[in-house]
Amino acid sequence: MKRSDFPMLGYGVGLRRQHYSHVLETRPRVDWFEVISENFMVAGGRALEVFEGVRANYPIAMHGVSMSIGSTDPLNRDYIRQLRDLARRFEPAWISDHLCWTGVGGRNLHDLLPLPYTEEAIGHVVARIREVQDVLERPILIENVSSYMAFADSTMTEWDFISAIAAEADCGILLDVNNIFVSAFNHRFDANAYIDAVPAERVVQYHLAGHSDHGTHLLDTHDHPVCDEVWALYERAARRFGAVSAIVEWDDNIPEFAELAETADRARMIFNDSTEESRKAALSADHRA
Ligand SMILES: [Fe+2]
Fold this sequence. Notes:
single chain; eight-stranded parallel beta barrel; 289 residues
């Protein structure tokens, strides 16, 4: 797969319950919505009516939290089939989930937990992504999670790990810029090096979000505005990767919809400014030549 296999949806918002009525009633100006797949895996009722109403007016992508692609438990094939059925009905531009595990031994830990960055883990996850993609009949995107602990067994960087998995499974990457920043602080790695190393052709979407600062560590709480350092990292990504669809995630202390839409517009402006700068730089280089 390559990014051009997917549409450029523009700058959108992660749809949350607090804004269902506002979105349905006022059809705010925003390019697209990312929906949490599990919220709509129901037999009927209000949730599916909301999904239908939103889908009638906006492009959407489906983002899941339960695939547990990194676990050693068997893949939940019922869940994957439900995901496929939901996708057949609502035709999302793509389906994504996290490069993590959420449970083991049949127990759900309700958290997105990191993997050891080893060749063995790459082989394990790649085989499972391929199985999921066979059932879904499409490539998926995998998202980098934020983390607070690392495995002593890891033999490579996180960016080498996710890049190798995406290449071998032939899937896309959902780059969460805030998660890179949070993990870079917590593990003392260089966030810029991460952006510079990820294969450009596989980056199909960004997440932008806020976190909370606990002094010794950052916590990925999605309850604050996007901070200046994350905007700077996004700008670096925008210059390197070109036009990539983005959404704003906010899950706690959720503001009025207008603030989310303004944040999405800021992402658009930063991208537009970065291309304008590149154009001017190219023009002046031509002039000198
Ligand atoms: Fe995210």
